[in-house]
């Protein structure tokens, strides 16, 4: 290995964390976590301090998404992967149509397609870096797709397909929620985990439910279908209405999330966070467009994610070598998604990331690449 390329201190970002998940955590969130000791940490989740915490987070999310009347915010133990299994039991009557244009859309499709109590799933696919959208199809009672595909940095519009009858829309928002605008009325189930835009840890899932989404959960629960209690969205719905979870929740995760949501709302809510992430990703896409050895991976600008920017590099600039030098200088976690196998970088620009630090990241990349190309 060659000696490490030293980056001048004047070029370095104030905070060098740019992971696509989990997100950078702000110092103010850690201070909130310290302040929660001993009033919340180590307290029973059936008692007021933790129930009030859960209630705060649910109310903050309702405000951030400006949920319409009749919509509800629920939560449960586990992350988005757990939610896919729960959805296979509690949301799909028989058949689901999935849009898979990356790793995570494909994983949810695999979960419903393999479920022995469901009919075969219909899976619409597109190559990584592009997007495929849902289309009405006979026999489908769920239409599911990712709002933002974390593995590729492609974002899809959230629009209810016309002509789908009483089928419901189920949107994976894990890396989009809280970082880009959404018309929540176009969804029946908009679900996510807290470790991306909400700059918290994993261990929980959240979902915004429409009245139709709630009705579907209650319908299937009343049908007599067997399901594990931990995967029952009816159990999660009932517990959430009491500001509880089935089992002890990740309390520290909730404290970090409440602090992040307070910062988001104080800054101006969805407009604030969406503009902040769009500014950061815009810096990266503009840089890649004008740089001879870099290209935005998502060719259609309309589908380029505002929260996860993926950039292809020419062979002359080896991503692994570039990232090795950056990491040695404290600039970390811009690794590409491993299964794509491409010479690229993937930069998480969730709201906690300062746009000025993204500009500094670009300067650091240019500095190291210039040395590698010399």
The helical percent reads: 25-40%
CATH third-tier fold name of the largest domain: Aspartate Aminotransferase, domain 2
Count of DSSP helices?
10
Largest sheet: 7 strands, mixed
Largest sheet, spatial ordering of strands: 1-9-8-7-4-2-3
Q: By CATH's scheme, which homologous superfamily of the largest domain applies? A: Type I PLP-dependent aspartate aminotransferase-like (Major domain)
SS-based structural class?
alpha/beta
* Strand element count: 12
User: Which residue ranges are poorly predicted, with pLDDT under 50 across at least 5 consecutive positions?
Assistant: none
Rounded to an integer in angstroms, the radius of gyration calculated over CA atoms is: 21 Å
Q: How would you characterize this protein structure?
A:
The chain is an alpha/beta fold and 374 residues long. The protein has two domains: 28-266, Aspartate Aminotransferase, domain 2 (3-Layer(aba) Sandwich); 268-373, Aspartate Aminotransferase, domain 1, CATH 3.90.1150. The chain has helices at residues 27-35, 48-64, 80-90, 103-114, 211-222, 233-241, 251-267, 270-290, 319-328, 355-373, and strands at 72-77, 96-100, 122-125, 142-146, 148-149, 154-155, 168-172, 189-192, 204-209, 294-296, 308-313, 344-348. It has a seven-stranded mixed sheet, with helices on both faces. The protein has a three-stranded antiparallel sheet with strand order 10-11-12, with helices on one face. A hairpin with a 4-residue loop joins strand 5 and strand 6. It is globular, with a radius of gyration of 21 Å. The chain starts with 26 loop residues before the first helix and ends with a helix.
């Amino acid at each position: 290995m060659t000696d490490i390329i030293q980056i001048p201190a004047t070029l370095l970002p104030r905070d060098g964390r740019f992971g696509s998940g989990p997100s950078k955590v702000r110092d103010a969130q850690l201070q909130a976590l310290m302040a929660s000791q001993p009033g919340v940490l180590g307290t029973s989740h059936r008692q007021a301090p933790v129930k009030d915490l859960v209630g705060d987070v649910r109310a903050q999310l309702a405000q951030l998404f400006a949920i319409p009347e009749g919509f509800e915010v629920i939560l449960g133990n586990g992350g988005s992967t757990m939610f896919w299994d729960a959805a296979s039991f509690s949301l799909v009557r028989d058949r689901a149509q999935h849009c898979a244009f990356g790793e995570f859309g494909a994983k949810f499709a695999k979960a419903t397609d393999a479920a022995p109590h469901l009919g075969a799933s219909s899976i619409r696919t597109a190559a990584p870096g592009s997007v495929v959208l849902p289309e009405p199809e006979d026999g489908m009672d769920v239409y599911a797709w990712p709002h933002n595909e974390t593995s590729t940095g492609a974002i899809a519009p959230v629009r209810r397909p016309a002509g789908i009858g009483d089928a419901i829309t189920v949107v994976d928002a894990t890396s989009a929620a809280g970082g880009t605008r959404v018309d929540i009325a176009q969804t029946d189930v908009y679900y996510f985990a807290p470790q991306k835009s909400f700059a918290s840890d994993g261990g929980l899932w959240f979902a915004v439910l429409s009245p139709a989404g709630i009705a579907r959960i209650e319908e299937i629960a009343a049908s007599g279908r067997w399901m594990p209690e931990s995967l029952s969205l009816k159990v999660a719905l009932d517990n959430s209405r009491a500001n509880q979870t089935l089992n002890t929740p990740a309390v520290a995760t909730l404290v970090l999330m409440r602090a992040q949501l307070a910062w988001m709302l104080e800054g101006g809510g969805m407009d604030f966070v969406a503009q902040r992430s769009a500014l950061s990703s815009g810096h990266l896409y503009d840089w890649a467009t004008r740089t001879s050895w870099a290209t935005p991976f998502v060719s259609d600008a309309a589908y380029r994610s505002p929260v996860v920017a993926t950039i292809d590099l020419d062979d002359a600039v080896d991503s692994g070598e570039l990232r090795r030098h950056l990491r040695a200088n404290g600039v970390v976690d811009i690794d590409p998604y491993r299964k794509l196998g491409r010479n690229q970088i993937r930069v998480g620009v969730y709201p906690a990331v300062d746009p000025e630090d993204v500009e500094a990241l670009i300067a650091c990349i240019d500095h190291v690449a210039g040395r590698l190309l010399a």
